Amino acid sequence: MLAGSALSRTKSSVANGADASLQQCQEVIGYQFRHPELLEAALTHASGAASRLGSNERLEFLGDAVLGLIVCERLYQKFPEYLEGELTKLKSFIVSRRVCAQVAQTMGLERFLRVGPGIGRSGTLPANLLGDVFEALVGAIYLDAGLEAARAWVLRHMGPMIDHIGSTAPLENAKSLLQHLAQKEYGTTPTYRVLDEKGPDHSKCFLVAAFIGEQSFPPAWGRSKKDAEQKAAANALAQLHRQPLPHASPTEAAR
Hints:
Layout: H1 2-29, H2 36-42, H3 57-78, H4 84-94, H5 97-107, H6 127-145, H7 147-168, H8 174-185, E1 191-198, E2 205-212, E3 215-216, E4 220-222, H9 225-240, H10 250-253
Antiparallel strand pairs: 1-2, 2-3, 2-4
Helix pairs in contact: 2-6, 3-4, 3-6, 3-7, 5-6, 6-7, 8-9
């Protein structure tokens, strides 16, 4: 009887410890589950589960789709002048394992991930595991409370990053993006003017500004006219979106 009582107390202690860990995780991620078993499943890697069906793989599958929808919707609404190709590139980057893992690390999710004894022996978990658990959490929140709850949670943790990446990432396409916006919103095509140049003939730098009609935008230096035009276009896009300039000229930087 004593042995049975001790075993019962041990099981109760383990259960209470697990409950405490789940509660702490909910406080860290800023979401309270109606069905905590979904959170438990989202945190369980295949190496720490009795079977793969008991792991977070199915939730990761669902969360990947939900996350993609939320990110696509945000990009579509935030950057109406971007073409399908630019939106696709941005979405692929934002929902990548690397970015999801960075968000998971920022929240400290590695403390709560349930893995087998052979995982993370070096003291750090592989980045792909953290990316997977982030997607699994998105899927778990979606099942727990629906799309609105999942959207609110994702944008709370990723919204500023989505907006920043969206406004600065497509530098290589800045001229085409600015042309599309100018033609759509102003009925004209941007022009570019060289305001200054310096350096020897074999290694000149150029200061270029973008214009839409008579409206000028902050100039940018480049190691060629083509490079300076791309950077000037990126500055124009940033100013039109009321975002920080990605390529401040020395005059702008001194302000």
